[in-house]
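Incident log, support desk, overnight shift.

02:14 A customer reports that sequence design results differ from what the structure should imply. Their input is reproduced verbatim below. On-call engineer (initials T.W.) acknowledged and began investigating.
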């Protein structure tokens, strides 16, 4: 029963369970349906969302594709740029390489140029070391080297050679008066003329200043050197035209011969130099061969120069006066002041024994000023003593005349002594007047305007250009005593004296003959109508006191 009961109950329960299950199923179905609808809606939403996502993904993919394309393009651009950069770098490197090569080429060229310049500079320095800058001639160093080599060759071959030492006469006054520029051009002109006189084998050298030398390595004998010297004297005697100046210059030449006058270069040069000084002492514008006794005289010359520098301080100079007379009346019309040196050891020295030395060492300027002052002082003192006024003449050297202070010195002396200018006469040589005609003319006219008399000394021995006699304000011509000495025995000298007198008369100049020693000479001059005379025949040079006494006794000189 129990089982039946249980079964019934069980069946009822099952039915309840079935209903419940059915209900549950129904509910579940409803739920499912609802869920299905929900799901359908969700699916739809999801689908939509998926679609949206897909679209977004597609858009993203498109963007990525675009970015990829852009990246690819950028990459390509970068590759192109990289390639361009590489190419540019390669081009830059090539350009730099080309530039480097160009710089290298330029540097190489410059290096070659620099090397050439260095070599040219070395050559130039070597040239400067052995040549004179002004004239381009070999200098002292090169001359000595060539002379040494020439002596060695002459010794081996048993032949002679000659050395010539040359010094321009009175060059310093041109330098001082016209300036160094004119002086330099004159030296260049001299150098060229000396070169024109030389052979190809000879050497012309400038030693410095106005000194030149010539080496003649091949001569047959001494006469070959003499011939060369005469050619040089003639070449230099012609006027030099420098900057509108017509300059005249001469040269003194000393010659030494190898092997007679020395076995080495130093001795040859020294002996040629010594001979040159003797050429100057013999009147300049000539040449002298060296002689052994010249050495003793050279030592004496050096001694005189040393003593000469102290002579002014010690008042060792004195003036002697030689009368000038009118040949017709025998009246004393003037005197010439002549310097003497009362040497403490050698006694009374004449001008020819020391004046050239004074000119060479520059002492002629203070000595000349002393002479001028002393002469003017004596002339004025004679007047103050009541003696007849006479003209006092003083010789003027080239160095004095060309000195820039010359005119001022004249004015100072006249003012200091009180002598009127008309009682002063200045004697100048033709060579002085012709060295620079332009400046000479202005100076002479300045002196003439003051009233100072002007005379040409030693007329006929210099350049004797007649044109300057008309141009310059000259008062007097002095016939050189070398013509007067022989005029009575030599027809040529007589003709010269007569011609000078006639020329002076035609130009209205006073003519005076110097060096008259005899009555025969005085008579000849009087017949030729010479105005004045001077010489030992009328009176030897005398001291100022003796002349004053003579003037007190008589104003005329009539020789017995």
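02:41 Re-run completed on a clean worker. Output:
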């Amino acid at each position: 029963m129990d089982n039946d009961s249980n079964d019934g109950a069980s069946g009822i329960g099952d039915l309840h369970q079935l209903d419940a299950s059915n209900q549950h199923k129904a509910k579940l179905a409803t739920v499912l349906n609802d869920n299905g609808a929900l799901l359908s809606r969700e699916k739809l939403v999801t689908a939509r969302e998926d679609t949206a996502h897909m679209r977004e993904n597609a858009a993203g993919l498109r963007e990525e594709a675009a970015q990829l394309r852009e990246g690819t393009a950028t990459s390509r651009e970068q590759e192109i740029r990289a390639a361009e950069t590489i190419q540019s770098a390669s081009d830059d490197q090539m350009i730099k390489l080309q530039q480097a090569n160009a710089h290298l080429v330029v540097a190489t060229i410059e290096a070659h140029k620099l090397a050439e310049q260095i070599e040219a500079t070395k050559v130039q320095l070597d040239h400067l070391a052995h040549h004179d800058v002004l004239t381009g001639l070999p200098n002292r160093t090169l001359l000595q080297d060539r002379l040494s080599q020439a002596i060695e060759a002459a010794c081996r071959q048993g032949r002679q050679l000659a050395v010539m030492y040359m010094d321009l006469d009175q060059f310093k006054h041109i330098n001082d008066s016209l300036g160094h520029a004119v002086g330099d051009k004159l030296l260049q002109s001299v150098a060229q003329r000396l070169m024109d006189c030389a052979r190809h084998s000879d050497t012309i050298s400038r030693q410095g200043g106005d000194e030149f030398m010539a080496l003649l390595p091949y001569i047959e004998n001494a006469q070959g050197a003499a011939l060369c010297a005469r050619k040089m004297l003639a070449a230099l005697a012609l006027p030099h035209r420098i900057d509108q100046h017509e300059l005249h210059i001469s040269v003194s030449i000393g010659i030494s011969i190898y092997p007679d006058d020395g076995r080495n270069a130093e001795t040859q040069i020294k002996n040629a130099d010594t001979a040159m000084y003797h050429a100057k002492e013999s009147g300049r514008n000539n040449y002298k061969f060296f002689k052994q006794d010249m050495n003793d005289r050279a030592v004496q010359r050096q001694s005189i120069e040393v003593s000469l520098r102290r002579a002014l301080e010690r008042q060792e100079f004195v003036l002697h006066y030689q009368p000038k007379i009118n040949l017709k009346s025998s009246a004393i019309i003037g005197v010439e002041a002549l310097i003497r040196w009362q040497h403490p050891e050698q006694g009374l020295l004449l001008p020819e024994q020391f004046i050239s030395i004074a000119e060479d060492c520059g002492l002629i300027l203070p000595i000349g000023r002393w002479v001028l002052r002393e002469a003017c002082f004596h002339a004025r003192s004679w007047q103050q003593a009541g003696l007849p006024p006479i003209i006092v003449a003083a010789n003027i050297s080239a160095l004095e005349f060309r000195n820039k202070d010359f005119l001022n010195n004249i004015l100072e002396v006249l003012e200091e002594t009180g002598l009127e200018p008309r009682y002063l006469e200045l004697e100048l040589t033709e060579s002085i007047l012709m060295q620079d005609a332009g400046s000479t003319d202005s100076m002479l006219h300045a002196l003439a305007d003051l009233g100072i008399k002007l005379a040409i000394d030693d007329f006929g021995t210099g350049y004797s250009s007649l044109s300057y006699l008309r141009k310059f304000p000259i008062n007097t011509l002095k016939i050189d005593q070398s013509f007067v000495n022989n005029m009575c025995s030599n027809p040529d000298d007589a003709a010269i004296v007569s011609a000078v007198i006639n020329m002076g008369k035609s130009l209205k100049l006073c003519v005076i003959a110097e060096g008259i020693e005899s009555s025969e000479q005085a008579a000849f001059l009087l017949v030729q109508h010479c105005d004045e005379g001077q010489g030992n025949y009328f009176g030897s040079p005398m001291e100022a006191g003796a002349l004053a006494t003579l003037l007190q006794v008589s104003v005329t000189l009539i020789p017995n």
